[in-house]
Amino acid sequence: MNATEVVSSPSRNVKTAATDANHFILTFENNRLASELFGQFDQHLKLLEQRLQIEAHARGNSVSIAGELMATNQARRALDFLYARLQSGGSVDASDVEGAIRMAVAADDQLTLPTMERKAKLSLAHISTRKKTISARTPTQDAYMRALERAELVFGVGPAGTGKTYLAVAHAAQLLERGIVDKIILSRPAVEAGERLGFLPGDMKDKVDPYLRPLYDALYDMIAPDKVERAITAGVIEIAPLAFMRGRTLANAAIILDEAQNTTSMQMKMFLTRLGENGRMIITGDPSQVDLPRGVTSGLVEALQILKGVEGVSVVRFNDSDVVRHPLVGRIVRAYDAKYKVQDESEQADR
Predict the structure, then answer these.
(1) Sheet-wide strand order for 55-59
(2) How many CB atoms lie within 10 A of CB 232?
(3) At CA 325, angle to CA 323 and CA 328, rounded to 5?
(4) CB under 8 Å to 299, separation ≥6 — which residues?
(5) What's the sign of the alpha-carbon dihedral 187, 274, 167, 327?
């Protein structure tokens, strides 16, 4: 165990049924790591209190946790996981705490029968490079990361802020560092939104860079910037618009197509058939954010229908509950989804 647990009587300050109350104290051996775990001014413990409706009070390297039985056990599993992460040399910030809480709650939600037994420790999928280790922060992220490990072609579809592109780039960086692939190829369709490529200043690289900036950002987060630049110069990392993929066979490479909802049917077919020997392909996009001209079928939407059930293809669908940006982003996504649902129902009723 990473922490010593002392069980005591139920807290009088927590409003919960006496038979369902729980109160215990966790003591962590390393004072410095315990301080990092609790957060500056105990902000991480405050997150636990808010999300799980418990009470958590730190004193030195110990924390007293009181509340409803399931919630306190979720808090214990989250803290145990995060402390183990600190012990292995990782770091913990507020988003990591949020993720551990989500996963602890999800583990209980998936149980078919209630049980009073102590649950196993959290087991989260993770991606590691020399610079950074990322753990899943939602059940869907966990499924996505596991799919990336086992499938040759993975579709990650859903709203913005769910980590689809970030995790895809992180996985590609991991494959490159392990020597599983020889290069990374990152691509996006250059669909204009107000500006046309021909009118943007600079050479072709300058013109396409604004479209590919999210991919650069994810790369820099996983690999030291100077190494990224050297790899780009050497052709080990290639960042190019989708049109540059035609006629190529992409072998021994991790290939990522981002914003795939803006591909046409022919572009998607062309891209999918570039996959070569020992290639891994990841396609991400949001079918609700298509910027193609009216009447043009999205290659992503069509591919999801055509490739359903094809061996070697894995599809992971994210939703608003998987948004890991600011909590407001999830509420914004839900509000828009609700509006579009009403519009769709109205259009169907008029037919």
Answers:
(1) 3-7, 21-28, 62-68, 55-59
(2) 16
(3) 85
(4) 260, 263, 264, 265, 266, 267, 268, 269, 271
(5) positive
Q: What percent of the chain has pLDDT over 70?
A: 78
Distance CA 176, CA 152 (A): 15
* Rounded Cα–Cα distance for residues 337 and 343 (Å): 10
Question: Tens of pLDDT along 317-328?
Answer: 998 888 876 666
| Residue with the two structure tokens 């051996």 | 29
Report angle CA 258, 154, 281 to the nearest 5 degrees: 65
What is the sign of the dihedral through the CA atoms of 202, 203, 207 and 213? negative
pLDDT digits (tens, 9 = 90+) for 18-50: 345 789 899 999 999 999 999 999 999 999 999
Whole-model pTM: value is 0.74
Contact 276, 250 (CB under 8 A): yes
Quick count: other Cβ atoms within 10 Å of Cβ 225? 11
Q: Name the more confident of 96 and 344.
A: 96
In whole angstroms, give the CA distance from residue 176 to residue 130: 11
Determine how many CB atoms are found less than 10 A away from the CB of residue 4.
12
How far is the CA of 197 from the CAs of 215, 242, 243, in angstroms?
A: 18, 14, 13
SS3 sequence of the chain: CCEEEEECCCCCCCCCCHHHEEEEEEEECCHHHHHHHHCHHHHHHHHHHHHHCCEEEEECCEEEEEEEHHHHHHHHHHHHHHHHHHHCCCCCCHHHHHHHHHHHHHHHHCCCCCCCCCCCCCCCCEEECCCCEEECCCHHHHHHHHHHHHCCEEEEECCCCCCHHHHHHHHHHHHHHHCCCCEEEEEECCCCCCCCHHHCCCCHHHHHHHHHHHHHHHHHHHCCHHHHHHHHHHCCEEEEEHHHHCCCCECCEEEEECCHHHCCHHHHHHHHCCECCCCEEEEEECCCCCCCCCCCCCHHHHHHHHCCCCCCEEEEECCHHHCCCCHHHHHHHHHHHHHHHHHHHHHHHHC
CA distance 108 to 244: 47
